[in-house]
Amino acid sequence: MIILDGKNISEFGFEVEPGHEDPITPNMERKTLAIPGRPGLWDFGSEIREKPFSFPIKIMDRFHDNMQQAYNELVAFLFDEYGQPREIKMVREYEPDKFYMVKVVQQMIPERPAEDGTLNLPFVADDSYKYSNVFADEVTWGSEEITFEYHYLLGHESLGGSVNITSPQILNLSVEGLAVQPIFEIEGSANNLTISCGKYSFALPNFTNTSWSIDFEKYVVFKNGEDTMIEIRKFYLMPGDNQVRINGNNINIDMRIKFRDKYN
Predict the structure, then answer these.
(1) Last residue of a domain, which of 70, 96, 128?
(2) 153 and 114, same structural domain?
(3) Which residues span the domain enclosing 19?
(4) pLDDT tens per residue, range 166-217
(5) CB atoms within 10 A of CB 180
(6) Are residues 74 and 182 in the same domain?
(7) What is the DSSP string of the chain?
(8) How much is the pLDDT for 150?
(9) Which of 128, 144, 159 is the last residue in one of the domains?
(10) Contacting residues for 94 by C-beta, under 8 A, at least 6 apart
(11) Beta strands 116-125 and 15-16: pairing type?
(12) Residue 183 in contact with residue 214, Cβ under 8 Å?
């Protein structure tokens, strides 16, 4: 079973057949250089590429006009209003806590035997990583969305949403999977506000009754909803336990640290 933008593929009248392709690693391109007189190759590492998927699906119906209607509805769902393949959130039944963003990657040609129709559903994830269905600070006891089908450890430590900060302090955060680039959402007032974690840090100019969104994945800073010219460098939360340090003067802010756990 696959779920596409919250819809089970069965809602279109199809079922996933055995034998689908669901690779556990993406395509990779090695960067090497052969140097005359030197044995072997000089290795410059590998570049991560896309991750392809292929799902054989079947519809059981003896009436081919019904089949064609199901195909039409599926195609309309997979393409946008301009007739282009659109990005879709894909969740697999055997890993319900994670998703990929995928799109159709090639032509689909159905086979039309007497009483059923079969079709190969080819997807590609240009971003080959999979992500948690929820933001890390939503992993809390009592969550109605996170069930025991999810694979989070009970020790996954989060802030549980926005935190009020009125003095310098340290916040403890846990990250599963890979290093992530968070979004800091800050509202309030502070002078000389500096936030750091390990070797990474950033600072904001003095502000009063201001809303900030600092997105380290997109390298953009918004002030009161408007883009700014403030330049930011890399800021990562590493796998495992992280200590986020908040320093400054006259601090009175509400802060949320947003990220989805990220996996190969």
Answers:
(1) 128
(2) no
(3) 2-128
(4) 999 999 999 999 999 999 999 999 999 999 999 999 999 999 999 999 999 9
(5) 26
(6) no
(7) -EEETTEEGGGGT-EEPS--B--SS--EEEEEE--TTSSS-EEEEEEE--EEEEEEEEEE-S-HHHHHHHHHHHHHHHB-TTS-B--EEEEETTEEEEEEEEEE-S----B--SSEEEEEEEEEESS--EEESS-GGG--TT-SS--TTS---TT-----S-EEE-S-EEEEEEE-BS-B--EEEEEEEEEEEEEEETTEEEE---EEEEEEEEETTTTEEEETTEE---------BPSEEEEEEEEEEEEEEEEEEE---EE-
(8) 53
(9) 128
(10) none
(11) unpaired
(12) yes
Tokens of 5: 């933008």
**Opening angle at CA 87, ends 220 and 54, nearest 5:** 135
DSSP for 54-115 reads EEEEEEE-S-HHHHHHHHHHHHHHHB-TTS-B--EEEEETTEEEEEEEEEE-S----B--SS
Q: How many domains does the chain have?
A: 2
pTM, two decimal places: 0.81
